[in-house]
Amino acid sequence: MFKEDAATGVAASALSAYLIDNGTESYQEGWHAFQVHQGEAMGRPSVMKAEAYVQLGKVTKTRITGSAVDSEQ
Question: What does pTM read for this prediction?
Answer without folding.
Answer: 0.81
